[in-house]
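Structure (tokenized):
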């Protein structure tokens, strides 16, 4: 009878240690999950801010301003347009056909 009681006592103590360990792991994993979710929300917020900044930087007025100031570009006018013509090379003997 004493052996049975000792075995049951050891089983209860072992299960109590296992329960405490399981609760500790559960809390640790929950805090890690909470931190990950907070970081995810922070990254989503930064991504949205960067998207807004990207849209602000790509407005046509800003592009036009950068083109004129930094690249010294100017609007196209017919007075400054240069047209390039490409001449197709002519066959050496246009009157004869090959093979005759």
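Design, position by position:
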């Amino acid at each position: 009878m004493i052996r049975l009681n000792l075995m049951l006592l050891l089983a209860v103590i072992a299960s109590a240690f296992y329960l405490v360990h399981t609760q500790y792991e559960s809390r640790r994993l929950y805090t890690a999950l909470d931190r990950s979710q907070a970081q995810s929300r922070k990254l989503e917020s930064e991504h949205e801010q960067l998207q807004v900044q990207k849209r602000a930087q790509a407005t046509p007025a800003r592009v036009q301003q950068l083109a004129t100031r930094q690249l010294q570009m100017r609007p196209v006018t017919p007075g400054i347009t240069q047209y390039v013509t490409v001449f197709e090379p002519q066959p050496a003997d246009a009157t004869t056909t090959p093979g005759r």
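Reviewer-requested clarification: The mean pLDDT is 89. Residues 2-51 form one domain.
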